[in-house]
Amino acid sequence: MSERYSKSEEMLKRALSVMPLGTQTFSKSRTQYPLGVSPYFVAKAKGSKCWDVDGNEYVDFINSLCAVTLGYNDPDVTEAVKAQLEKGVIFSLPHPLEVEVAEKIVEMVPCAEAVRFGKNGSDATAGAIRIARAFTRRDHVAACGYHGWQDWYIGATTRNLGVPESTSRMTHLFSYNDSESLLKIFRDHPEGVAAVIMEPMNVFEPKDDFLHVVQDIARKHGAVLIFDETITGFRYSNGGAQELFGVTPDLATFGKGLANGYPLSAVAGRADIMQLMEEVFFSFTFGGEALSLAASLATMSKLQREPVVKSLVSSGEKIMAGLRDLIVKHKAEGFLSVAGHPTWSFLMMQDTPNYPQYAIKTLFLQEMFARNILMLSTHNVSYAHTQADIDSLLKAYDEVLPILVDAVGNHKLKELLHCEPLKPLFKVR
């Protein structure tokens, strides 16, 4: 057991005795964090920082898997939640906040004419697919990107254990920036595709007007176009990626940054399609839970009131430019690169002749955690990140990249690792 992470590892042992994976979220589990060199449990967080149960302080560039946009314990959001807590959390009838938050989403999001709430992004994407099927009277789905744990999507991936084969056969994956891969799905299932659902952007930017091309293909074939903006919504711009790229889908789904970390998601879109929510069963006891709605209203109001997105983009551009310069400086171009949007960018790792990328990533995480940077090779920027935080990140990169280059170039990775390398896993993107 490592001294630095001893309490984390003790807590992990306890957790595994009562919880499969030791946590509720795959991306927060030991599958992503190498044993012996990683923190496993966070005790508290504030602004851009978090502290693990061993008392180690980190600059956090994970930000709860992009759920936190303003920063941890944002004062405006916390104040709104405290005020609502005094009035109640859940009620026997709807609360006015349901209306107010729906109105705010309609005000901010181009495609939104009507709104319904869920709790997780998976709730919203499953709801969007269900009403798209009801609207078109079709069954098949074309999907690109990651869309949650529900059967309709995860059955089409390698994590399909427990999903009926008949369900898996209904979803077909296509490749980003490859319209031909989408057209093939329509050729294989003429008149059978209910919806095209996609993340409007994740790692790579749309090329050759790709999003408009997808929109045209969906319209031509009578399919509902759904943008999964669980991450891009209220991050790429106030109105999401659809506003940034000027492409309005029929439906969109939101989560994560919608309430700065409070559990809330939403399906929004064309009124004629959304009206089917009165017929399709999409109902949650806690769908109108008021603390998350109060947090959401405070979050969206702050987005409108302050230059949040402008700040995220500025910080992210500094990170991407600085990292690109360091990759060149340390001659790491052969296996490292940078991609993504400034508010959600990626350090891309490639296999080398001697080592697979997941082994290189293990060494990378070991060294970044040791330098008090919490990240999983993405930079999920928040409004709370300061220039000092960015400087700390780039300083860590300046120290860690030459270690990676030395490990790869001189066949020293095993020697430099203080743990077993991660194993290749289900890739969501």
Report on this structure.
It is built from 16 helices and 14 strands. With 429 residues, it is α/β, with parallel strands linked by helices. A seven-stranded mixed sheet has the order 4-10-9-8-7-5-6, with helices on both faces. A hairpin with a 2-residue loop joins strand 11 and strand 12 (344-349). The protein has two domains: 6-61 and 308-416, Aspartate Aminotransferase, domain 1, CATH 3.90.1150.10; 75-305, 3-Layer(aba) Sandwich (Aspartate Aminotransferase, domain 2). The mean pLDDT is 96. It has helices at 6-18, 63-66, 75-85, 96-108, 121-136, 151-154, 165-168, 179-188, 210-220, 240-245, 271-274, 290-305, 308-329, 357-370, 387-409, 413-416, and strands spanning 42-46, 49-52, 57-60, 114-118, 140-144, 171-173, 193-198, 224-228, 251-254, 265-269, 336-341, 344-349, 373-374, 378-380. The longest helix has 23 residues, at 387-409. Helix 4 runs parallel beside helix 12.
Major beta sheet, strand line-up: 4-10-9-8-7-5-6
> What is the CATH architecture descriptor of the largest domain?
3-Layer(aba) Sandwich
Reading off the top of the CATH hierarchy, the class of the largest domain is best stated as: Alpha Beta
Q: Over the alpha carbons, how many angstroms does the gyration radius reach? A: 22 Å
Could you give the topology of this structure?
Blueprint: H1 6-18, E1 42-46, E2 49-52, E3 57-60, H2 63-66, H3 75-85, H4 96-108, E4 114-118, H5 121-136, E5 140-144, H6 151-154, H7 165-168, E6 171-173, H8 179-188, E7 193-198, H9 210-220, E8 224-228, H10 240-245, E9 251-254, E10 265-269, H11 271-274, H12 290-305, H13 308-329, E11 336-341, E12 344-349, H14 357-370, E13 373-374, E14 378-380, H15 387-409, H16 413-416
Parallel strand pairs: 3-13, 5-6, 5-7, 7-8, 8-9
Antiparallel strand pairs: 1-2, 2-3, 4-10, 9-10, 11-12, 12-14
Helix pairs in contact: 3-12, 4-12, 13-15, 14-15
